[in-house]
Amino acid sequence: MLTECARTCGTCHHGKLIGQVTDVCADSHEQCANWAAMGECEANKRFMLSGCSVACGVCEEKRVGCSRRNTEPGVRTPHGMRDMFERALTDPDLVGRFETKALSRDPYILQFENLLNASEAADIIGRCDNDGRFERSMAGDQLSPVRTSTQCWCDDSHGCIDHPTVERVTRRMMNVTQLPVENAEYFQILRYEKGQFYRQHHDQQTAHWTPQGVRVYTFFVYLSDVAQGGGTKFNDLGLEVTPKLGRGILWPSVQGEQLHVGDMRTHHEALPVIEGVKYAANLWMHLYDFKTPSRAGLCPFLGQNTNG
Length: 308
Description:
By secondary structure, this protein is an alpha+beta fold.
């Protein structure tokens, strides 16, 4: 369907990506067999299973690796998204604990306080700082002058995703959106030093026909105070949020009535840090299970998302 019914499936602009799955299984490098013999198929899954499919013996698995694991969407149209936001604004437990307020109701932009405490923030930052794992952030799939921060993925490597604090904070945030934990990507932990920024962008860059479906929500949490600057600005709405340790912002990336259509009103940017250092984290949430097929390492549609 993705190749033969491209117009109907909305895949006209994704031929190269789809070809990585539908083309004849092949090794992309002459050293694939040697690397496989050295155990790289297991040690370096993200590259080897896609680039050395023959050597790693995963051709058949690759052909079915992009199937959708679950068919139950995490959000229902037409009112599921609206109901979630309104619950966050009216549920006594959530409002009492997080001081929830709406910065905007069309589209919804919610602000939360006390999503995590200073100790939890230090734990999450430490998953990257302690191992020296921060690296230059990407914009889309490449380095770009529009984004100058550094980032670190809190995934299965280095035991990050299994750290008790990471698990606890993840479930706390997922409880707000009422989506399964499996529908969330891994925390993208960010560090912005003086002068660093990320120009205007939008978070929904995942095709609706991928196994995980569209990014439904962005839940962004500040892991530090910032002496000056570093705010999050919603360009089309005239809103700016000031960084504060434990403060979170939740917004939709798609339209509640048409979940396959991006809500372009939620463009945003990370303003330059003027003084101090800003730590923060993205938790992107999808319509369907992200983690299960991602861990299989066999589908290019589930390569680590790098924007945000």
